[in-house]
Amino acid sequence: MTQSVVVQIGQCGNQIGCCFWDLALREHAAVNQKGIYDEAISSFFRNAVLIDMEEGVVNEILQGPLRDVFDSKQLITDISGSGNNWAMGHKVFGSLYQEQILEKLRKSAEHCDCLQCFFIIHSMGGGTGSGLGTFLLKVLEDEFPEVYRFVTSIYPSSEDDVITSPYNSILAMKELNEHADCVLPIDNQSLFDIISKIDLVVNSGKLDTTVKPKSLVTSSAGALKKQHKKPFDAMNNIVANLLLNLTSSARFEGSLNMDLNEISMNLVPFPQLHYLVSSLTPLYTLADVNIPPRRLDQMFSDAFSKDHQLMRADPKHSLYLACALMVRGNVQISDLRRNIERLKPSLRFVSWNQEGWKTSLCSVPPVGHSHSLLALANNTCVKPTFVELRERFMRLYKKKAHLHHYLQVEGMEESCFTEAVSSLSALIQEYNQLDATKSMPVADIPRLSIAM
Amino acid sequence: MSIVTVQLGQCGNQIGFEVFDTLFSDSHSSQGLCSKRENEAYQASCKERFFSEEENGVPIARAVLVDMEPKVINQTLSKAAQSGRWKYGQHAYFCQKQGSGNNWAYGYSVHGPRHEESIMNLIQKEVEKCDSLSGFFIIMSMAGGTGSGIGAFVTQNLQDHYAHSLKMNQIIWPYGTGEVIVQNYNSILTLSHLYRSSDALLVHENDAVHKICAKLMNIKQISFSDINQVLAHQLGSVFQPVYSAEGSFHYRRNPLGDLMENLVPHPEFKMLGVRNIPQMSENSLAYSTFTWAGLLKHLRQMLISNAKMEEGIDWQVRPPISGLPPLGKMPLNKELHFNTSIANLAILRGKDVQSADLGKKLRAYLHQYTKFGIEEEDFLDSFTLLEQVVASYYNL
Q1: I want to staple B184 with a disulfide (CB 3.0 to 4.6 A). Which of A19, A149, A414, B356 is the partner?
Q2: Residue of B nearest to A343 (CA)
Q3: Mean pLDDT, rounded, for B118-123
Q4: Where are the annotated coiled coils located (chain B) (predicted)?
Q5: DSSP code, position A316
């Protein structure tokens, strides 16, 4: 079995990471009755690495219920924090902690028989997650070139409270473009919308909408909580579920397995276009035990609706380059085929990849559900987010607002900013070109003719 | 004479298990349709072909299981052992920790050479256990990375090492609407390489078998194990012992040799398809009656009109030439003929080649293959070979 190492950086990264470990342990405990820390989980998620430049969050973790899962050898902390400054995180803390980070990573890798993947969790808008996180990517690429780098990035929403988040995000994006194998962009606003929707259903008091406990995609391990302790708990749980479902086929058995290297192989046709929009369904399971096939089909339809995407995006009205459906639970190949046939006409695929579907079936469902679906789409619908980000950046940059905080860090120059923006513009241009082919008819390329 | 089976990848292993299970159940079934002596002779012949004997009487399948990640092999081995009736050899498998990632290039250029020795050793061990080797039966899919890439590599190796033995590759053609996005690339590369090194390619299409399950067998929620069981059923009828010309109780000794002799007269034409009838669920079987003449008539028309199932046969089509060598055994009937399946396969291949071509023109996904040493020229070679094959079939 292959192993993965989870690296959580910054406040956001660490909080999500915590939820993730919580849920992962719960899942494996449910599957394996013997012990809570069984072979499958210990072999798959080998050694997390927690990094933060201020101690608050990590300390909380070490005092909470997960304190036995981690030990101090896996932590790297500092006291002062990065002050929401990408340059601080990337240049200053990067060089300061490079050796330490490398050492911890090497140790983690040594414990693994066959290290397949690094999962990096961070946010784009702050300083540590954004700056140090992306510095880490370059380090990983140099040190472990064969190992995949999957990055879960939380993009800032438009009503973000960090003023310099556009700077941080764009500077970070350049690194993601160049050094990540696969990026799963997520934004807070979408997560919040999903939660509001769930709350509406749970609290609406309708007679037939009693939700099964533990089945909420937002619920933490343990009893169903009405009031979440920390404000971002519910949202973090959604992201944690995403990561769990992504790796489910590699951890558990199924009739059509999908390993992590297959994700990159199938969903990334060109190395730069590696941004995958994700959606998770169902968000909750009603307590009603009779689940007719109609509910199953509903799960598939929901996965493509813009309300279920973990990012502001509308994949149905944009162009698909590739799509992956990872199904868990008691779903068979005929259900999958039927739904693909049903949904295909309403989706637009790029002309050279009309049948661009990758599917996988895992027999173990997530805790509290009888089946679930994770859809990953390489779709041009990420473009609007990038375009908006660039606009916010330019608004600040034109006035040179807050720039001095960055430029006074050694190693930062204005050229860093201009390069970052042009890298993003090039990416947007690629998506534009693909979109332009949307309405063109499928070109009939002549077959290779040979002399007989 | 015995056949050594090599099961590759998730698909190959899952099907392989069903095949052995079917072969075993078939030869030990309790239907009292023929005399005891006949039954025993049949059982002995079948057993010798596919199983070898162990001390405590549990037959061991003559098979080598290969996969690049352990989950499926573990499942397969334990399922077989649990049944208590037959099992796989304890050490007759080879697996690694990390899969091939649906990448033909990774399977062929990296995993293949790296593990060549170990895999060939395992095969060698199985071969030594046989009194006389009829040939190899290699089960693989075309869409993934291990089955297709390592399958192509292993077949080539078998060609080099066991030049006198026959090889039949059982390949699974993926669903049209995709299970794997790069399946077109993987399939083209596999087909072209297999064409050079294999003796016969027995093709099964997931779409067709799925339809059989849906329409004829009335299965509501079709799972892969249902599909595999239908497949195993068809394969069983291909390989089960057949009477020889000398009369009853003497079975033909060389199954693969016979098949090749009759069906692959020219090395250019080696793609085979299977039609079998009746295809229905166990329950309906009790309520139907058959006659040989009726079955044969249906089968003939299925072949001529290119239908894969018993339903919807076009009775208008007439054949230009006929000359089918029927091989039958109660209560199943199957024909193995290539003439009429060509048109269909040629079309299928054509479509595949075309979509792979489109993708290639825009260099989509190519960086994943060039990473492991498969360059554009290799793709070009594959396309050329396949176009030639398609053209020769059309000319027929």
Answers
A1: B356
A2: B177
A3: 91
A4: none
A5: G
Q: Which of B175, B359, B395 sits opposite A353 (nearest CB)?
A: B359
Mean pLDDT score, B85-105: 85
What is the arithmetic mean of pLDDT over A331-353? 87
Query: In which region does residue B86 sit, left (phi positive, over 0), alpha (psi from -120 to 50) or beta (all else)?
Result: beta
B224 with A114: Cβ contact below 8 A = no
Parallel/antiparallel/unpaired status of strands B93-95 and A357-362 = unpaired
CB contact under 8 Å between B387 and A261, yes or no, is no
CB–CB of B358 and A261 under 8 A?
no
Mean pLDDT of B228-253: 67
Nearest-Cα distance to chain A for B203, in Å, is 20
Of A113, A116, A257, the CB nearest to B72: A257
What pLDDT sits at residue B309?
57
Q: With H, G, I as helix, E, B as strand and everything else as coil, classify residue A185.
A: strand
Taking CA atoms, B95 is separated from B13, B63, B156, in Å, by: 12, 14, 20
**Which of A256, A340, A448 is nearest residue B224 as measured by Cβ atoms?**
A256
Work out whether the CA dihedral B259, B265, B267, B270 comes out positive or negative: negative
Confidence bin at B303 (pLDDT 50/70/90)? low
Torsion of CA A283, A286, A291, A294, to 10 degrees: -50
A91: tokens are 């240049």
SS3 assignment, position B95 = strand
What pLDDT is stored for residue B344 in this prediction?
A: 47
Residues of chain A positioned with their CB less than 8 A from the CB of B358: 351-352, 443, 445
Q: What is the percent of chain B where pLDDT is above 70?
A: 69
Dihedral angle sign, alpha carbons of residues B78, B82, B88, B91: positive
Q: Give the one of B71, B99, B145 whose C-beta lies nearest to A253's C-beta.
A: B71
Please tell me the distance from the alpha carbon of residue A429 to that of residue B224, in angstroms, as a whole number. 42
Average pLDDT on B244-260 reads 59
Chain B residues lying within 8 Å of A445, measured CB to CB: 354, 357-358, 361
Q: Which amino acid is at A225?
A: K
**pLDDT of res. A427:** 93
Q: Tokens for B40, please give them.
A: 């025993």
Count of A-B CB contacts under 8 Å: 141
> In the prediction, which pLDDT does A140 show?
92
- Work out the average pLDDT over A130-138: 91
Query: Is the Cβ pair B222, A333 closer than 8 Å?
Result: yes
Q: Which residues of A touch B98 (CB under 8 A)?
A: 2, 114, 116, 259, 261
A77 within 8 A of A115, measured Cβ to Cβ = no
Amino acid at B255: P
The reported pTM is 0.83
Assigned token pair, A308: 């279920």
- pLDDT of residue B285 exceeding 50: yes
* More confident site: B38 or B86: B86
Contacts of B14 in chain A (CB under 8 A): 255
Q: Is the pLDDT of residue A214 over 70?
A: no
Nearest by CB to B70, which of A1, A270, A334?
A: A1
Instruction: Note the pLDDT tens digit of each residue in B191-218.
Output: 889 888 888 888 888 888 888 888 776 7
For residue B178, the chain A residues in CB contact (below 8 A) are 340, 355-359
Quick check: B350 pLDDT over 60? Answer: no
Q: What's the token pair of residue B251? A: 């079975």
